[in-house]
């Protein structure tokens, strides 16, 4: 999985692309990327309520 993701990153440096992994099957390990995109900015909520970074990712990076 790590190698596939690294290959994807190298490939997308010159073009837009999408990587599609196989369908889940019972009894077999599956692939998961937990956030909406492979590369995206983190979002943090500060003590004063101000958000630094991407507001869409505050819950994920909290």
TrEMBL record:
For this chain's UniProt record, which GO biological process terms are given?
nitric oxide biosynthetic process
This protein's record includes keyword NADP:
yes
Enzyme category, top tier: oxidoreductase
Question: Which InterPro entries does the entry link to?
Answer: NOS (IPR050607), NOS_dom_2 (IPR044940), NOS_N (IPR004030), NOS_N_sf (IPR036119)
Q: What is its EC number?
A: 1.14.13.39
MF terms in GO: calmodulin binding; metal ion binding; nitric-oxide synthase activity
Q: Which residues form the Nitric oxide synthase (NOS) domain?
A: 1-62
Its required cofactor(s), as named, are: FMN; heme b
- Keywords of this protein's UniProt record, alphabetized? Calmodulin-binding, Flavoprotein, FMN, Heme, Iron, Metal-binding, NADP, Oxidoreductase
- Protein family (similarity comment): Belongs to the NOS family.
Q: What is this protein called?
A: nitric-oxide synthase (NADPH)
Organism of origin is Biomphalaria glabrata
């Amino acid at each position: 999985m790590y190698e596939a993701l690294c290959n994807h990153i190298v490939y997308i440096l010159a073009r837009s692309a999408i990587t599609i992994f196989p369908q889940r099957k019972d009894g077999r390990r599956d692939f998961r990327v937990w956030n909406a995109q492979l590369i995206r900015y983190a979002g943090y909520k500060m003590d004063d309520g101000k958000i630094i970074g991407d507001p869409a990712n505050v819950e994920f990076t909290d």
